[in-house]
């Protein structure tokens, strides 16, 4: 085992989720390889952030639930489903430090949670409780589906939508706070009220950890009605304590960074009179029984990904430090790999290490000629098909007078790679990416070449 991989196993923190005794021998590299042996061999998977990863032992637990249903569906429905969902909700309550299990609903993914929250905002406009021109504020780098959902539920109902334009590359939390305050001021400038703020805990692309506690405190000071935190990437990647965060709503996926199969997520709804107005967008015969029960049955489908959530402890507790230990090692490793790549290419990271999670943005050589989002997508495809490297590429438009990096001899970085680190990753995954980019540079490659290839 090389020194870097040894470092990935050495972190030590207490796991507040489980009270189990620690094993005398932690999981080995060969056991990790076995758990993820279903991954395509020869591919550098440094994009855990998009779809996550599920170990074989969790897949086996999921199959047991699936077979339990297929064996005797009626017995499963009447005697096991709701009990299992409640067990998962209780696990989530303890994991995120919620006050009550009734605050927890399980949904397919964060996109579904967004629909639940925005649906009631749309109804409030349509029913006259909110006035036309009242505002909703979101970050400019909000996930695409979130932006579309705000368009579908808020804009169509008459709400005024404001985007906080965050800087990137970003150098400090204060830069984000300043721009967010400007957005709130704009929202109040026409005399309306700000009914909702949607704040990412970790933006997806570009990936940056957002100072959510500070932004929520500002929202409270400015009289924002409801605050919804989209933490799609958070669970398993950074600490989530909903009481400390203080949002009205919080969602996160379990299939991205906590090893669950797709798709499983939670929606936390702080106890308030708003709870009775929340409904799952798929209406079943459970409608009106509260969001948690509505979400627990939306018709015949495979619920195994939601039922298997507590089983994740059996996997994460094989690592020293459990969830927290994995989280710390992933962060430290991805920062180290990001700095290695930036040094190799003469570029920079997109944010300081303390604003990174288990994902880091790394500037790509300017000579690649990334000049549009289409260029970024074509380069990503080229890296997959020619070099077996899977990594998202972000196009960063550079405005007049802006400099893309500190060590670029005044060149402008327009492309950033978002690299992830999960327990199955090894140093050679990132070296493979480094060497692929270096080869492209040596060959005089530019993205324009992909238009004619």
Write the layout of secondary structure elements.
Elements: H1 3-7, H2 29-35, E1 44-45, H3 48-51, H4 56-71, H5 73-96, E2 104-107, H6 110-126, E3 135-139, H7 144-155, E4 160-164, H8 173-188, E5 194-200, H9 212-221, E6 226-230, H10 242-245, E7 249-253, E8 265-269, H11 291-296, H12 304-307, H13 312-316, H14 322-345, E9 359-363, H15 373-387, E10 389-390, E11 393-395, E12 415-420, H16 427-442
CA gyration radius, whole angstroms: 23 Å
Largest sheet: 7 strands, mixed
Distance between the termini: 41 Å
What is the helical fraction, as a range of percent? 40-55%
Mean pLDDT: 91
Strand order of the largest sheet: 2-8-7-6-5-3-4
Oligomer: single chain
Q: What's the name of the CATH homologous superfamily of the largest domain?
A: Type I PLP-dependent aspartate aminotransferase-like (Major domain)
Q: Determine and state the CATH class of the largest domain.
A: Alpha Beta
Determine the structural class based on helices, strands and strand pairing: alpha/beta
**Poorly predicted sequence stretches spanning 5 or more consecutive residues:** 1-20, 403-410
Strand content: 5-15%
User: What is the CATH topology classification name of the largest domain?
Assistant: Aspartate Aminotransferase, domain 2
Any idea what the CATH architecture of the largest domain is? 3-Layer(aba) Sandwich
Number of domains: 2
H/I helix tally: 16
Secondary-structure element string? HHEHHHEHEHEHEHEHEEHHHHEHEEEH
